[in-house]
Amino acid sequence: MRNIKHNSLIILTFFIFAFSANAQHKTVEEVEGKAVGETVENFIATDADGNTFNLKTSLKEGPVVLLFYRGQWCPVCNHHLSQLQENLDLIKNKGAKVIAVSPEKQENLQKTKSQTGAEFTLLYDKNYKISEDFDVAFVPKEQLIELYDTRLDADLENAHSDNSKRIPVPATFIIDQDGRVAWRHFDRDYKKRASAEEIMKALDKI
């Protein structure tokens, strides 16, 4: 009898903890995005090919154009990344490096690379550390999660490092060599993205 009560208590504690942890996750209305002028915390992450990327090291070579995308399942993301790839040489000529970040695991980064032809770095945001620092990670509404999973084959519960099903606002940030946000494009409407032209104009002012 004691074992039954003990096991029941463990199960109840688990569900309370899980509920509390999920309740702490932000909605899309609550995320604000890191502001211009704010310092960016250094991060180290793994790219699509298993290589290690270090922001601090990269900034020694020039500014970083850091953008967040939702996943290989997102047609708007794939179109955006393809457009940036088409203008990659022009952005590089400004002395900048393009880094795209997603909560999806490495195998899905490879799918994005294949679908978009991206020759820039695609990073796996394990445990949402990067998107949390930039305040772009949120939990979509349940009906949207169902739509993403059934119609777009997102599989949010298994494609990420945990089952919180969070995704990022597809924002773009330019980080200067001092490690601060010099420019940003932040819009909760996932269809509105920073164009290559906007990014290059912003780089000219840094």
Largest sheet: 7 strands, mixed
Task: State the low-pLDDT regions, or none.
Answer: 4-22
Given the structure, what is the number of helices? 9
**SSE topology string:** HEEHEHHEHEHEHHEEEH
Number of domains: 1
CATH architectural label: 3-Layer(aba) Sandwich
| Structural class estimated from helices and strands | alpha+beta
What CATH calls the topology is Glutaredoxin
Write out the strand line-up for the largest beta sheet, numbering strands in chain order.
2-1-5-4-3-8-9
Tell me, briefly, the overall form: globular
Number of strands: 9
EC number: 1.11.1.24
Catalytic activity: a hydroperoxide + [thioredoxin]-dithiol = an alcohol + [thioredoxin]-disulfide + H2O
Protein name: thioredoxin-dependent peroxiredoxin
Family: Belongs to the peroxiredoxin family. BCP/PrxQ subfamily.
Structure description:
This protein is α+β, with helices and mostly antiparallel strands and 206 residues long. It has one domain: Glutaredoxin (3-Layer(aba) Sandwich). It has nine helices and nine strands. It has helices at 2-23, 55-59, 75-86, 88-92, 106-116, 129-133, 142-151, 156-159, 196-204; strands at 44-47, 52-54, 64-68, 97-102, 121-124, 137-138, 167-168, 172-175, 181-185.
